[in-house]
C-alpha cells in the first residue's frame, strides 16, 4: 500500500480503519473526492458522447466510472494517473488528474516513476490543449493570433501538472522529514532511558562499594581498639590485687583506648550523617536526567580512583610508632624496622598501609597473645612494602585466654584494600608456627 502525508499524524494501530485506509477520516475524504470527480466526469461525458456520436447515457456511465477511480488513489496512485491520462482526449477528468498527480508525488514510489508519469500527463495535457485551442481558432471561436495556440497549450499543461506535482513532492519530503525526526526522538528517548538505567546501576554499585569501605573502616577501628581494651582488661583483672600500680596503669590505657575508639567512630558517623543529609536534599530536588547520570558516574569514578585524595582523612604512616607502642603497652613484644628513605605518599596509600599493620597486630592479639612480633616497613623507589610476622605464642592457652571473638573478615578486608590500589597481598602460616602478613602497594 502506498500512503501519503495525510495518513501519518496520529495514525491508529493497523486494522482500525476500513480496507486500505488507516483512518475513517481518510476513507471519507477519498470517497468524497471520488464522488465529486465522478459527477464532473459524468457531466463532461455528455459532451464527449455528442462529439463521439454515441448515446449520452454511455458517455455518462463512462465518465462516472473514470471519475470514481479516484477512490483508489491511496492504494494505486499509478492507476489513477494512468486513467486521468487516458481520459484526457475526452476532455474530462480535471480533478482526477490534479489529485492523482498530487498523491503520486507524495507517495514513496521511486522518483523516476513519478517523473515519467508526470511527463506523460504534461505531454497529454499539452497535446489535448493544443488541439482544442487550434480547433477553436479554426472555427472562429477564438480571434487571437497564432501565437496563442502554443502559449495557451504550454501554460495550461504547466498549470495543470506543475502545482499538484510540486505540492505532492513537498508534502512527501515533509512527511519523510517528520518521520525521521520522530525516529530520532524515539531513539534519543531510548538512549536516555538506557543511560538512566546505567547511571542507576553505577550509582547502586558505588553505594555498595561505599558500604563495603565503611564496613572495613568500622572493623579496623572497632576490632583493634576493642581488642586492646579486652587485653588490658584481662591484665587488669590478673594484677588488680598483686600490683595496684600496674592495675591503675592498665585502667588508664583502657580509658585511652576507649576514648580513641569513640573519637574515630564519631568521625565516621559524622561523615555518614553529612552524606545522608546530602542524599536527602538530592531526593527532595528535581534533578535533570543528565545530571543524575553525571553524578552517578562521578561517584563511581571517585570510588574507582579512591576519591579526592587531597581531602582524605584517616591514619598515616607517621602514626605507626604510636600504634606499635599501644600493642607493646598491652604486653606484646613487638619491634619496628624501617628500610629506605622515609617519604610521604598519597593519603589513601598511607591509610591502607597503616590499616594492614593495624589489622595484623589485632590478629596477633586475638590468636597469638604474647608472641614476639616483627613489623617491617620498606620504602622502595616505586612501591611501599610492609610485613608483620609473629612467632608462636609462648603458651598454647595464651592465644585464647582473652576470649576475643573473630569474625573472619580481617584478612579479607586487608586484601580488598591492597588489591583496590593495584597491590599484592599474601598471608599465611610460617614454618616456625607463627603467621606472616605481607603487602606491596604501588607508590603512584
TrEMBL record:
Gene3D superfamilies: 1.20.5.1930, Histidine kinase-like ATPase, C-terminal domain. Residues 397-406 have a biased composition (Low complexity). Residues 171-202 form a coiled coil. Keywords: ATP-binding, Coiled coil, Kinase, Membrane, Nucleotide-binding, Phosphoprotein, Transferase, Transmembrane, Transmembrane helix, Two-component regulatory system. GO terms for molecular function: ATP binding; phosphorelay sensor kinase activity; protein dimerization activity. The keyword Transmembrane applies. GO terms for cellular component: membrane. Residues 388-407 are annotated as: Disordered. Residues 210-275 form the Signal transduction histidine kinase subgroup 3 dimerisation and phosphoacceptor domain. The keyword Lipoprotein does not apply. Pfam families: HisKA_3. Its EC number is 2.7.13.3. The chain crosses the membrane at residues 54-72, 78-102, 114-135, 147-172. It catalyses: ATP + protein L-histidine = ADP + protein N-phospho-L-histidine. InterPro entries: HATPase_C_sf, Sensor_HK_TwoCompSys, Sig_transdc_His_kin_sub3_dim/P. CDD domains: HATPase_UhpB-NarQ-NarX-like. This is histidine kinase. It comes from Streptomyces chartreusis.
